[in-house]
Structure formats: structure tokens, C-alpha cells
Please model this.
Amino acid sequence: MNNNNSKSQMPSRFTNPSIFSWIVLIVFIAFFIHGMSGSNITFDRLIRGTFNLGQFLAEAFPPNFSRIEFIAQSMLETFGMAVVGVTFGIILSFPMALLCSRNTAPNMLIMSISRIVVATLRTIPDLIWALIFVVAVGLGPLAGILAIIADTIGFCARFFSERIEEVDPGPGTALTAIGASKTSVVFGAMVPECFPSFVATSLFGLEKAVRSAVVLGLVGAGGIGIELTSAMNLFRYDEALAIIIVILVVVIFVEQVASRIRLKVI
Model:
């Protein structure tokens, strides 16, 4: 008797999938099969690729640090590009987040337009932004900085906006009741509550920008990416490995520093 009752109270392990679930599954399988057939994956190519990778590693070791001065200079340029780009991006993200938030936007039309702008900035990959800005302002770090600004606004403004919409309305209502302006409510009630989240998101933005800045150089937007492209094109694999090691050290260093700051703030 008791066993029957306990069985009837157990949740069912499997439920019948809905029609929407079947459609999603079929579309996913169709794209998967199309992707596999279009990739031309063959056993011969995998074997040849493994052999070529072994040859690359054999020629890359030991890494060649003879041009470490130029590599360090390019890495410094990359890091500076990321810091400048992410700083301007974070500063611009704050007003964009206020315009995107339901509780701070002046009206629904401005909120909708702002959200479309932020979604567009976020949807286009940073590499595409770099190509666009290389065409606009020419080769060099400026194109990379502008690409990072666009990418950072798309990333940070969204998370800033989501956090602003989650604030407790109580302090803001109290300030409004005593005659505080909208600006005073934002900086007196909302910003203090959102500050730890803003810092954490900004640090993630910095980590993302450092990694992006490395890749942006591959399309001519300045930095260490140009050095890496030149080394690979000239088959100087030992120098390319040295550049990759320097990039790894800097990225890991930035992530560790950001993690420590995040732990202290949150």
C-alpha cells in the first residue's frame, strides 16, 4: 500500500516532447548533418593534420625569444589598446544602460532604439568591427581601439542594464518623495547598489578586451597579432611559439589580477 503511494508521488522521468521540441531537434540534426558533410572530414585529412601538427611543434621548439624586445613592445601596444578601448567602452556603457533600462529610460521609444543599438553592437563580432574600422580609419591601433569600444558597449551595457532593472525601488522612491531629481536618484540610490556588479562586469570586459586585442591584430588593427601573422607567414614557427607564450602569460596575469579584484569588491 505504502509502496503504491510512494510510486504515485514520484515525478515522471520522461514526458512526451512538444511539437516545438521536435521541430527544434529536427532543425538541429539537419544543421549538424549539413555541417558535417560540408566540413569534408576524412580519415586521411585527420592523419595528415596530425602529422603536420607534429611537424609544426618540432619546428617550433624551442621557442625563439631573440626578438623579445619587439615582441614585448607589440604586446605592450596590444595591452594599451585593450585598456583604452575598454575604458571608453565602459564609460559609454553606463548612459546606454540607463537608456536601455525599463526603470530609467525616458520613454519606451528611446528604450527600444537603445536596446536595438546595443544588440547590434553585441551581435557583430569584434573581428568584423575591426575590419570595418580598418576601412574607416586605416591600419593601426586606432581601429583596434574603436572595435573594442563597440564590442565593450554591446557586452557591458546589456549587463549594466539588467542589474539596474533589478534594483530595490525603495531607496529611489524615498529620494523622490523628498524632492530629489532623477539624476540624484540614479547616483544616490541605484549606482551604489549596482556598483559591485558594475565592477565585476567591467573586469570581465577587460579580460575579454585583452583576448580580443590579440586577435584584432590579425586583420591589421595593430598590436601583437601583426607580429604573430608575420611569423606564421614566414614559417618562423619558433618565433610564433615565443609570441604565443608571451600572450598566454599576459592573459593569465590579467585574469588573475581581475579575479583578485573581483573577490575584494563583491
Remarks:
- The chain has a mean pLDDT of 85.
- Residues 87 and 171 are 29 Å apart (CA to CA).
- DSSP finds eleven helices and no strands in the chain.
